[in-house]
Amino acid sequence: MEIIDFACKPSLVSRYMRELRDVNIQNDPLRFRDNLRRIGQIMAYEISCRMTWHDEEITTPLGPCMCQECSEQVVLATILRAGLPFHEGFLSFFDRAENAFVSAYRKYREKGDSFDVLVEYLASPSIEGKTLILVDPMLATGSSMELGYKALLTKGSPAHIHVASVIASQAGVDYVRDHFPADRTTVWCGAIDPEINSHSYIVPGLGDAGDLAYGKKD
Predict the structure, then answer these.
(1) Up-side HSE of residue 3: CA atoms within 13 Å toward CB?
(2) Nearest Cα residue to 123 out of 144, 159, 148, 158
(3) 7-55: per-residue pLDDT in tens?
(4) 3-state helix/strand/coil string of 124-137
(5) Among 38, 102, 106, 139, which is least packed by CB within 10 angstroms?
(6) C-alpha distances out from residue 140 to 8, 53, 66, 170, 194, Å
(7) For residue 116, what are the CA distances in angstroms to 38, 104, 139, 200?
């Protein structure tokens, strides 16, 4: 399984990551969402470079021209709610993609920091034989990503899976490595942070991406 960490090579992703993490900038939800979109766009471009393309002849006003078209049918799947602006960034580049949405959330138990991850909603086309891009800005424990993936498998078996996150913990990356098919999964991360705390938040991370993008929830 290939793991791509954008932090290993400075680029514009580095600037957007800095702004996403900075507490002095996070108080601007519009800017926060825009930076998630921008990172989604950059990752979408990089993923497209790994895809299969074919020649296709078109006609311009001055004559025929051989161009290239993507041979893969993409299904872009998102874990709600924090994933929505990240999803929009991908969709602005993969504009012909089919779309899937999974509701997965943490339900904390009465005592302590332990929780269960519950999936309550799935809307998806068939993913059979297609390229699945599964996006969630935060890959902490990896359990939400796995449950989202398992829910999507009720719609078929994809030819290849791209797991994309803005910030991942090393534990989350290791979890995906252990629970996704290694021969057909690629993991894309804006950065990989070293640990998660007792609340299963990524450290240093950036906080709660959903709250920063859309406001606090009860």
Answers:
(1) 17
(2) 148
(3) 999 999 999 999 999 999 998 999 999 999 999 999 999 999 999 999 9
(4) CCCCCCCEEEEECC
(5) 106
(6) 19, 34, 44, 8, 11
(7) 31, 10, 16, 12
Distance CA 53, CA 50 (A): 9
> If you search the block for the tokens 């990240």, which residue do you land on?
86
Secondary structure (3-state) at 62: coil
Residue-wise pLDDT tens digits, 123-166: 999 999 999 999 999 999 998 899 899 999 999 999 999 999 99
What is the maximum span of the chain, computed from C-alpha positions, in angstroms? 71
- Is the peptide bond between 204 and the residue preceding it cis, with omega within 30 degrees of 0? yes
Asked whether the beta carbons of 208 and 57 are under 8 A apart, the reply is: no
- φ, ψ dihedrals at 161, nearest 5°: -120, 130
Cβ count near 20 (within 10 Å): 25
Long-range own/partner contacts, residues 212-216 (CB < 8 A, 24 or more apart): 212/26, 212/29, 212/32, 213/29, 213/32, 213/33, 213/36, 213/81, 213/82, 213/84, 213/85, 214/29, 214/81, 214/82, 215/29
Give 166-212 pLDDT, tens digit per residue. Answer: 999 999 999 999 999 999 999 999 999 999 998 889 999 999 998 99
Q: Encode pLDDT of 41-92 as tens digits.
A: 999 999 999 999 999 999 999 999 999 999 999 999 998 888 899 999 999 9
Q: Report whether CATH 3.30.1050.10 matches the domain 2-52+70-198.
A: no
Q: First-to-last CA distance in the chain?
A: 38
